[in-house]
Structures are given as C-alpha cells and as structure tokens.
Amino acid sequence: MDKELIINKKLNELSKSKFRSNFYLSKKMKEYVTDKGYKEISNHAYDFINKNIRPANPKNDGKQTPMKNHPVFIAQHATGCCCRSCLYKWHHIEKGVELTDNQVNYLVMLIMKWIDNEMREEK
C-alpha cells in the first residue's frame, strides 16, 4: 500500500478520536513552523522521536512528551506518537522493543503530514 495512503488513512482514523481531534496548532505555532521551515521541523521530529520514543523502554514513558511549547509535541499527541502505550494502541507497535528506522520514518511522516494539514487550516 502507498505510504501516503497509509498516512491519510491513519490520520482519518485518529480524527475520529475525541481526545486526538482536540489538538491543533495555534497561530503562534503556525508562525514558528513558517519561520523554521518544514525541513527544520522535520529534523526536530526525528530528534524527539529518536530520543524519547525510539528506545525500547523510554525514560518517563507516558510523560515524556509535553503537551505544549512545540508544534511537534502537539502533533505527537494528535497522532498517537507521544508514548509507547499510544504507539501500541494506535499503531500496533510493540512496547519493549526499540523502534526500527522504518517505524521512526513512518512516525515522522505522520507527524509532518498532520502539521502540514494544520498549516492549511483556517483557525
């Protein structure tokens, strides 16, 4: 199946969750994305995922992703990429096993697509 189709299907599924659908980028967050550019935001997403989600047993799992102060953090919560429990629930990625490069790439693609969708929204 096409990666973009998989990403769009997952975003549609997440949008039906009352909790996940309550996240959005504020005007300030959108300005931050515009100022930094997608490449740098993507680099931040890779950094946050690799440091806080990729390890088999992340430090402070379940509390490692703030709910404010960076567009990627907001996107991680909106896409169920914020902790290993959410990864298992939404993406069927097992706990206790380090994420593969392909899994990290998928999560960053999902995060960036959610951010891109938000940037196009008029709010």
Describe this structure in words.
The chain is built from six helices and no strands. With 123 residues, the protein is mainly alpha-helical. The protein has one domain (3-120). Helix 1 packs across helix 6, helix 3 crosses helix 6 (101-120) and helix 4 packs across helix 6 (101-120). The N and C termini lie far apart (32 Å). The model has no long low-confidence stretch (mean pLDDT 93).
Gist of the model:
With 123 residues, this protein is mainly alpha-helical. Helix content is 60%, strand content 0%.
| String of helices and strands | HHHHHH
Q: Work out the strand percent.
A: under 5%
| Total beta-strand segments | 0
Radius of gyration: 13 Å
Count of the domains: 1
Helix content: 55-70%
Regarding quaternary structure, how should these chains be classified? single chain
Low-confidence stretches: none
Mean pLDDT: 93
Number of H- or I-type helical stretches: 6
The shape is globular
First-last Cα distance:
32 Å
Largest sheet: none
Task: Find the structural class using helix and strand composition.
Answer: mainly alpha
